[in-house]
């Protein structure tokens, strides 16, 4: 499983940004590595079971386009030949930094757009924060098995007219700005499979243990690697994580 390597600029990305995903992948028997944009452009992605792009900031894709433009053709070739992609986009407040990867890698085949503005919803949120929306509406799909709700932060709506991509998770019907709008898509690109999510925080430390985020992550990993989807033991999974909210509370208590 490949993550995009963190380069010289100080943006959180790659394995560094998703330590719990790395832990779960390794426990499931996958090798996990990082490749630079230049490595991927050189064809080193061939043979990878899965590419994970989950970034706090979309702007590095602009820098990659400037310095290593063939990176995007390499990703398209990887997917066309049967590769798999889990893409979790930035919730940047700047509209022009939202969908750079989607624009550069896919273009109009398929065309996926990230809507402007966050999906704030005071009626369906967590932690008393309207920006941290609770997703409770799902399409019938393998990815949504065993899900009742997901906890997102500053989620972005993702839209497409391509029949090869299916919306699988939606905002509430009463969402003030984006009612019943898709925040996750799944389907095929070429011979490959993709899962596209309009938020990258849901699988990070202190969020993965809320709602059914852990189950959704396992569903994504299993669906993208052609394994059967099973109900996970959330309590056991959370207890296995090397960093959790309880761990931090215990550390803070000891420091006092």
Mean pLDDT across the residues is 89
* Portion in helices: 25-40%
The proportion of residues in beta strands is: 15-25%
Q: What is the chain-wise order of helices and strands?
A: EHEHEHHEHEEEEEEEEEHHH
Distance between the termini: 40 Å
Number of strands: 13
Q: Measured on Cα atoms, how large is the radius of gyration?
A: 18 Å
Largest sheet: 8 strands, mixed
* Number of helical regions: 8
Please identify the structural class as seen in this structure. alpha/beta
Low-confidence region ranges: none
Strand order of the largest sheet: 2-1-3-4-13-12-11-8
Report the oligomer: single chain
Outline type: globular
